[in-house]
């Protein structure tokens, strides 16, 4: 049983299969709505990349300003849990 399954798998891999290059190339003409979609998509990608680039420029200028002012980086790690005893909250109100 297993030998038959192996033989059929090997035969399928050896047999020539239909390749996408064998089929004729069909070019569909874009509709005006499709052209507008591609143009708006390109504008959106361009605006997004511009936003990222401008945010990176602001970040770089901010850190360069800190370097010029000779402000040292934080030596203490920031923590989501402040030091000291935990505040005691009654969680019964949240369960209602």
Helix content: 55-70%
Low-confidence stretches: none
Mean pLDDT: 80
Briefly note the structural class of the backbone.
mainly alpha
Textual characterization of the structure:
With 96 residues, the chain is mainly alpha-helical. 56% of the residues lie in helices and 0% in strands. It has three helices and no strands. The longest helix has 37 residues, at 32-68. It is extended and about 70 Å long. The mean pLDDT is 80.
Record keyword descriptors for this entry.
96 residues, mainly alpha, extended
Summarize the structure.
This protein is 56% helix and 0% strand.
Secondary structure blueprint with pairings:
Blueprint: H1 2-14, H2 32-68, H3 92-95
């Amino acid at each position: 049983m297993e030998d038959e399954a192996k033989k059929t798998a090997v035969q399928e891999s050896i047999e020539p299969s239909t390749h996408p290059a064998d089929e004729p190339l069909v070019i569909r003409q874009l509709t005006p709505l499709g052209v507008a979609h591609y143009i708006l998509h390109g504008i959106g990608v361009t605006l997004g990349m511009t936003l990222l680039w401008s945010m990176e420029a602001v970040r770089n200028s901010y850190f360069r300003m800190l370097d010029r002012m000779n402000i040292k980086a934080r030596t203490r790690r920031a923590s989501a849990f402040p030091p000291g005893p935990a505040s005691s909250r009654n969680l019964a109100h949240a369960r209602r």
